[in-house]
Design brief:
Elements (H helix, E strand, L loop, with lengths): L4 E6 L4 H10 L4 E2 L10 H12 L5 E7 L3 H7 L7 E3 L3 H9 L5 E5 L5 H13 L6 H7 L2
Parallel strand pairs: 1-2, 1-3, 3-5, 4-5
Helix pairs in contact: 1-5, 2-3, 4-5
Bound molecules: D-ribose (RB5).
The site of D-ribose (RB5) has 8 residues, from α3.
Amino acid sequence: MKNKTVYIASDHAGFKLKSQLLKKFPKITDLGTKSDESVDYPDFAHKLTKEILKSKNNFGILICGTGVGMSITANRRKGIRAGIANNSKIATLIRKHNDANVLVLPGRFISTNEAKKSVQTFLSTKFESGRHKRRIDKI
Ligand code: RB5
């Protein structure tokens, strides 16, 4: 997490997992939601991506039930590369191959342990560049 500012946000379906992740990663800035009361995931995806776009050193974690709603919303913003990871191997690859700056977790379909491993590797894995950079430039 060196030199990185990391933000996290979720809807109600991701609230529990977000709380567990914040216990393990207390330096991550929480942008809500603050309870398991029903909310709309786009409000939180927009709030987080706005912060991420302020600096290249900013990274984000979004959680909803499936990860899909957060992912669709986040990827509408130019400069955001959000990838859904169901496990830590995918979380590693979205950094290495896609230079993802937002990790999206499916709160209802991932264990807490796998989510913690996913965050750890997402924040410590570097982009491999090379042929992957060429592909990203074509997006
Ligand atoms: C909320 O019930 C659920 O629809 C949301 O968390 C997410 O999975 C949407 O993509």
